[in-house]
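This is your field. Have a critical look at the following sequence-structure pair:

***
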Amino acid sequence: MRRFLPRSLIGQIALVMAAALLVAQSINFTLLLVERQRATQAQIEGPLFGRFISAAQRYESRPVDARADIPSFSRRSRYTISSESILPPERSDARLVTLLRNSAQASGLVVRDARAGFSEGEPPPRRFERRPRDRDDHPDRYRLLVLSVQLRDGNWVNGLLWISKPDRWAPVRLAGSTLLLYFVLLVAMIWVSARIVRPLRDLASAADRLQGAGETPIVKPSGPADIERAITAFNAMSKRVSAMLVEKDRMLGAIGHDLRTPLASLRIRAESIEPEDERAPMIATIEEMAAMLDDTLALARTGRGVEQLRPIDVGALADTVVEEFRALGQPVELEGGARLIAKLQPNLIRRAVRNLIDNAVKYGGSARVAVRDAGGDRIAIEITDDGPGIPDGELANAQEAFYRIEPSRSRETGGSGLGLTLARAAAQAHGGGLELANRPEGGLVARILLPRGTAAS
């Protein structure tokens, strides 16, 4: 069931509100329908019962010798006096009898017996044939109500009254109005939810863009007051984070400058040390420390440089790096391909490609570079080698800073453990990423994915 439930906030709010309103409106519809039916029935039956009781009172108030058939008092009714009720006892309706007795009691009329019911499918006697004017045009709107009360003298006052049937379309109209109200309330709730969710989406998008690189994302405060306060707090936090990162870069620059001076001094001193077999390891250690310092500073500054984005032929950029290695006699090849253009920081991407080629040559003996269309408006720079690859369980960790894999990546091969990390950071600074995968035929493929025209965050 969870697969079919909405995952977005507005979808969940809409679902909950729709279910709650449906239950509430269903209960309200049932109560209104029952109450309306009762009110309508009482409105229709009440006056008829009152007129019938009034006719019976007129009869009882007359002198004994003047009592005769009571004339019609309405086009919809006819009354007679007889010694027997015209309604058989088995046709009497207990509910109607109760209403009839209550009406008589309220009027002060004493009755010995009472009967009431509907004449179903039987035509009234000839003398009761007077009917409503529209009875013949709309026979389905009326039914014949039979009332009969026995007075104190033993005579029965009988009445045949045309009564309107309950409106069968009333439930339909009530259901229509209920559904209309339901949808109006639901639309209102969805609108309110959207007004809340829209600034939250903007806030989430800005948080995704907040990577410490480029311009600080600022969200325009909107929505309810609580959401506006949250957005204002986020904007202030974003500015503070950016300021802290700028200060961090300044501090790292100062540290790098201060450390290079003593390292240069140590190298000068080491070059004068005798014997030569002790001098070379010391100089190698100092160079390794200097390279590690450069890599660390480059990683810390990735994505925050002053280099501008500009359209670059990615194939030409890769060819430039390949030629650098070929000039040094390294077995590096570039596969030909279509001309692909992307907006890049060329020096940053060039350094990432150089690190990946260097790793491929060190651990695989050679490297093959290709620039391909990765689909979805993305470009891939692939560096392939024929080395031992990386164990599948280590692929995710291999991109972490200073993470080394033994025994295939031993310290004897050199490096600071930051090459893959720098490549990934450079790709992410452009809105892309770095993928590593073992080839079925052996070796590793490192793939830098870059968007064609998306600016760095």
Observations:
- The domain at 308-451 is CATH 3.30.565.10 (Heat Shock Protein 90).
- The chain has eight helices and eleven strands.
